[in-house]
Sequence to fold (132 residues):
Amino acid sequence: MKKLKIRTSKRNDFVDITKDIEKLIPSNFTGICYLFSTHTTGALTINENADPDVLLDINKHLNKLIPKNQDYFHHFEGNSDSHIKSSLMGFSEIVPIENSKLSLGIWQSIYFCEFDGPRDRSVLVQFIKENC
Fold:
């Protein structure tokens, strides 16, 4: 298992980690890549990489659905909205790999979703080899 280090730059941030993951893939590898966020206020998603407005729209509507300042029980840290957003987005992704290349669609990238930044974050990356 490998650990990918990520530095986010704002409270709500989407960091494209696709190229960082590709650098970790063993040579001549076919199988799957399992990704896991080790944080309760950060998540992972696969989405469009061509138009940055897609990520802006996702962030805008998550903030509308789950505003920062509500009557939350977990209020002393001020990040209840971050916990809810990360739970909705999800903490893991699985991506097929063929011939040491991620099998993503032409417009897809893998993003770390930050909801309580800026922070230093980690994503666990596990490569599981195809049995032939």
About this structure: Residues 2-129 form a domain with the Jelly Rolls fold (CATH 2.60.120.460). The chain has three helices and eight strands. The first strand starts at residue 2 and ends at 7.
